[in-house]
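Memo subject: From amino acid sequence to discrete backbone structure tokens
Keywords: amino acid chain, backbone geometry, structure tokens, three-dimensional fold.
Body of memo: The sequence and its backbone structure tokens, given next.
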Amino acid sequence: MPLTSGVPYRGRFAPSPTGTLHFGSLVAAVASYLDARAAGGRWLVRIEDLDTSRVVPGSADAILRTLEGFGFEWDEPVVYQSLRTEAYESALTQLRHADVVYFCSCSRAEIQSARRQPPGTGEELFYPGWCRHGIRAPDRMLAVRFRIPDGPIRFVDQVQGPIAIDLTTECGDFVVRRRDGLFAYQLAVVVDDAAQGITKVVRGADLLGSTPRQIALQDALGLAHPEYAHVPLATDQKQIKLSKSAGAGGVDPSDPAGELWRALRFLRQSPPLELRLSGLPSLWDWAIRNWQVDSIRGIRSAVVEAL
């Protein structure tokens, strides 16, 4: 169900603490911050640290310090997903009662071996539904999968336009709790966005494919749909996402105004040249007053070096 019109704007930035803040994450943070502030709304920060195998010790604090150094101001205490497992367990119980989840014993290696195209083609791993009507190997550790609805899920993205994705052909039933007991990103983000009252999600276009899954979960849990805006993904010359690109480092904390300037230019904003040297307050003030999401409409990705 859509959010009721007139609800005060609440946005968020939700980095994973897997290293230093890189330029692609800075772009997402800047876009979400500007969109919230330009609308007179509140902006929150959430640390998505559920996947403990990927968390780099100290990186959450480093990311927060970097955000502070760049002039970001969040309006409520930072939320850490690792402290919210009870909320995710409650949501999973609700999904069980609705009979829209089931236990699954299938390993990633087994699913990989049955994929429709060879590894490296870029096709997403598709689950064939082997455990949908009964667990194949009940003696194993079990994951919990969400039973996806039939037909395409449609939404209008403010940047990417009308989107229709059929999960039955895109990914199949997806995991909401992993075999190792950790809750999956898709469920956690839905629960947290609802708990924090998020009205609009502004994030990178690499997460566009996650949105229909989250909408399906929102429907199953009786939660409102926030609006969505997926901004261009920052890539290197080989079209590889910067966070995964070889040699892609963090932003330069010694030059926050320069890095903010680069992020604004990447987002097709046009701050006057003199503001680059005038300091963060003046640059942020201009950026908020002149935020134009139309400048990036329809752009899925862009090469950073070319801008």
